[in-house]
Specification:
Elements lengths: L45 E4 L5 E2 L88 E2 L18 E2 L5 E7 L8 E7 L6 E4 L11 E4 L5 E8 L2 E10 L2 E11 L4 E2 L9 E6 L3 E8 L6 E7 L1 E7 L6 E7 L6 E7 L5 E4 L9 E6 L5 E6 L6 E6 L8 E2 L8 E7 L12 E7 L2 E7 L5 E5 L11 E2 L4 E6 L7 E6 L43
Parallel strand pairs: 3-11
Antiparallel strand pairs: 1-27, 2-23, 4-5, 5-6, 6-7, 8-9, 9-10, 10-11, 12-13, 13-14, 14-15, 16-17, 17-18, 18-19, 20-21, 21-22, 24-25, 25-26, 26-27, 28-29, 29-30
Amino acid sequence: MTACAIEDKTAGVAGTAAAAGPAPEAADPDGPAEPVEPVEPPAAGAAAEDTAGADTAAGDTGADTSGGGGGPDATGAAPGRGGDPGAPVTAAAPRDAEAPADPRDAEASAAPQDPAQDLGAPTAPPAPSAPPVPSAPPVPLGPPARTDEAALPPAPSRLVPPALTLGADHAYAARLTPAGEATGPGWFPERWTLDGPEPYAVPLPLDRPEEAASDVLPLSDGRVLIRREVAAGRHTFSLLYPTGPGTGEVPLGALDCTGLTLLPPSPDGMSAYALLPGKRSTGVWLVAGGAFGPEQVADVPGRCSGGVWLDREGRLLALDRQMPGGGPVKAVVVDLGRGGGVTPLLQIAPESNDRLLLADADSGLLLVRSDAPGHDRLGWGVLGSCLPVRFPECLRAPDETLTPFAVQPGQMLMPESCAVALRIDGAGGSWVGLWRPAGRRLHQFAAPGGWLAGSGFWTREGVLHLPYSQEDAPCAVALMEAPVDEPHPAVTNGTNTSGVTPARGVCTPVPLGQAPLTGRTAPG
C-alpha cells in the first residue's frame, strides 16, 4: 500500500495488500473529444461532458519513490478488500445508563441514573477540571483525560454547525437547528428518522441552548452523541435520547485538547471516534462505545485530518497526514484492529498532496484530491487495483468547487459503474452533480429548495436521497435517480492515443509500491 510511479498520461493509484481474487478492471473512460456548451449552474437536467475526451494526470516520475516496505511506520499486512481482516472490532460495551427500549418512541420513560457511578473515568493522567456544567439529569463528570503532548493553538470557533450528519446505516441523522423564541437564542439537537415510510424529526432540547461549535453524531440505536466545548480546550461527550416530554442525557466523560474533531460515524453504528492533534503526533480516541469513557486507541505520527472508513467493520480508517516539520500531505491507513498500525495508502507523486475524500467498501472505488497534475484535481482509483488514479476532465471546474459526498453501494467488483453524488459550489449557490467513472460525463441538477447542502445517500438501486428542510416541510427527503450515460465508441483512427483500449492481462492486486514498473502496456 505504498507508492506507484506515474506512467504515460495517467497518475499513480492507491493500492492495498493481497485480495481474495483479481482486482476489478475499471472500464476504459477514454474516448473522442466532444464539444460541450457551458452549463447554467442552477438549471436542472444539465450535463457537462468530458471536453478532453480522456482522463488526464501528472507526468512520469520514472521510478518508485517509496519502495515496497511501506516506510518505518508500516505494520502488518496492508489493508485491502478480501484480505485477512485480522482481529475483529470489539462490540460496543453497554452504557451505564439505560436508554428507552425504542428510542423513536417520544413517550418512553426516562431511565434512572446512578449519580454515584463515575461515567467519566479518564484513561490518562488527570488534570484539574473546570467547574461542572449543569446537565439534565445532573451527573458529575470525572476529571478529563489529557493527551500526552501539548496541543496546537486552537482553531477559530465556527458560527454555523454542519448542515446534517447521517448515521452509518442512514437510518438516522442529526443536526443542530436554531432554537425558537421559547427556548431563547442558540441551537438545539434534532434527530431525523429516515428508514420509515416517511421521514420525521424529534427535537432533543435540554434546559440550555447549545453552541454552534458543538457536534452531533447519530448512532444506530437512535441515540445522538453530542460534543461540547465547555471551556477553552475542554470537550465533554454525552448521549441524548427522547424521554417523553423531555430529553435524557448520559454523560460519557471529557477530554482536554485544542483542535479536537469528531470523525465520521463508524460503520459499526455504535462507536464514535475523535482526532486529538499534538505537537508531533495525532491521537485517535474512542469517545463512545468504550467501557470506561474516552480511551486512546491509536497514536499516528504527524498531523492528521480528514477521516474515511475503508471497511464495514469500523477497523480500517484512512487519514490525511503531514509529517512533523512539513512536507506533502499523504493519505495513510490506520488499522484499529491491530493496535493502530499505520500503512501508506496514496502517493501519486513524491511531492504531491494526495488526500482521500470518499471510499466505497463494496466496490473499492476511491475519490481523491491531488495536485499531482499541476493543481488540485478530483480523481478516482480502485482500492487494491494495479491501475493508476485518473483525473477526468469533466470533473475539472476552475470556477466551481466539486466535493463528492455519496457513492452508490452494492456494486461489487464494478467500481466504474458506481454513481457518485457531488456538491457543486459556485457563484449561483450550491447544486448537485451526478457522475460515473465509466460515463465520462458530469450531470448537473438543481438541488431541492432547503437542501441541507452536502448531505445525502444512495440506495443500491441507484436512487439518491437528498434531505431538505423548508417552512412547510421541516423534515423531508427528495429522491433523484441517477441518469443513464450514453456509451462512447472507442477511437480506431489512431489520432487520439487515449481512446485506444490497451490489451490487459491477469491483474493481481498488490501494493503499488511493490508493483513492477516494467512489462506494462501503455495506452496507444
